[in-house]
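Hi all, posting the design record for the shared folder.

TITLE: backbone redesign
STEP: 1 of 1
STRUCTURE INPUT:
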């Protein structure tokens, strides 16, 4: 099947090109990068020198019409605008959007956390959430979740089984991301001299754009109001996310929490509850589509603590996008994806 990647020069776009090359049923049709049109793909993504000798192209109507599958790896706000401007070309096409444009159901939430027009919502592409796999498989258009949203949502979802014991209105999250999570555009605060040897907080005070996405995802399975206090940190590493989630829970134990997580994810290929005493590490997940999870119970304050880790360009972006594409196309869900990191 022929795949067109629009926004192929970004970090997520480059990871998509790498994954497509290793997929048994997909081949790259066009790598679209308007600002880099005419440049060799390997000039931007040197890791692809052996497999992608072609150049980036600008967008033309035929690039969409002749593709079997389209990945959109564009900045927030650009996917919706592009589809609206080329509505006939995109009509009926199978699309996975890695941006935020179609994740939120609420226009009010979009307007509060993002700027510009709200273009509506598509099937939400986090397959491991209850009921999501069936919805994704029957859709032609899927909104790929945010990287933080993925790491945090899969850490909260199992508590729905313990809903009578859990206070979903008091979830506290701290999480750190590598610099690729901010995209490829040059920013002073992301240059090496600023980032190295420094860990810094940003978007503090409930303003990070993934907050309503996480609340929406969990509310959809818990069917009760969710309130999340989320503080993100920028970590001095290129890729990876480590999240710590704290949830009040009554009349429970570490054994019950572990058993709940084990039962919830025992049949999931990409989510792994680690053995007791082992804690997630970001560098063990680089290049994989896996999530590593560990749980603890703080008896002193009556709170469950969950630590999760992902590769923000893998399960947090391109890997999950390919997982969703496999579901849309009817392929093996794990085709072209690895559970093993490259540490």
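Okay, here is what came back for every position:
SEQUENCE:
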């Amino acid at each position: 099947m022929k795949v067109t990647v629009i926004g192929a020069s970004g970090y997520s776009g480059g990871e998509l090109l790498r994954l497509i090359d290793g997929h048994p049923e997909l081949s790259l049709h066009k790598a679209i990068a308007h600002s880099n049109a005419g440049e060799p793909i390997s000039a931007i993504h040197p890791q692809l020198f052996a497999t992608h000798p072609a150049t980036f192209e600008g967008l033309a109507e035929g690039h969409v019409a002749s593709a079997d599958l389209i990945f959109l790896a564009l900045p927030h706000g650009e996917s919706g605008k592009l589809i609206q401007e080329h509505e006939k070309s995109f009509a009926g096409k199978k699309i996975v959007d890695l941006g935020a444009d179609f994740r939120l159901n609420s226009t009010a939430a979009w307007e509060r956390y993002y700027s510009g027009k709200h273009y509506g919502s598509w099937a939400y592409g986090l397959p491991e959430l209850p009921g999501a796999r069936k919805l994704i498989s029957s859709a032609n258009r899927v909104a790929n979740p945010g990287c933080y949203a993925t790491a945090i949502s899969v850490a909260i979802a199992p508590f729905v089984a313990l809903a009578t014991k859990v206070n979903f209105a008091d979830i506290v999250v701290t999480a750190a991301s590598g610099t690729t999570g901010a995209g490829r555009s040059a920013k002073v605060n992301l240059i090496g001299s600023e980032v190295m040897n420094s860990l810094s907080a940003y978007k503090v005070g409930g303003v990070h754009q993934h907050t309503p996405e996480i609340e929406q995802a969990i509310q959809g399975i818990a069917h009760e109001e969710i309130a999340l206090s989320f503080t993100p940190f920028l970590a001095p590493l290129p890729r990876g996310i480590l999240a710590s989630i704290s949830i009040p829970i009554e009349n429970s134990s570490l054994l019950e929490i572990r058993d709940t997580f084990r039962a919830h994810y025992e049949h999931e290929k990409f989510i792994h509850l680690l053995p007791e005493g082992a804690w997630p590490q970001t560098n063990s997940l680089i290049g994989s589509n896996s999530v590593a999870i560990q749980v603890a119970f703080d008896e002193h304050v009556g709170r469950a603590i969950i630590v999760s880790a992902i590769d923000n360009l893998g399960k947090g972006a391109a890997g999950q996008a390919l997982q969703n594409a496999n579901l849309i196309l009817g392929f093996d869900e794990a085709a072209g994806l690895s559970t093993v990191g490259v540490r």
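COMMENT: The CA atoms of residues 149 and 214 lie 5 Å apart.
Let me know if anyone wants the other runs.
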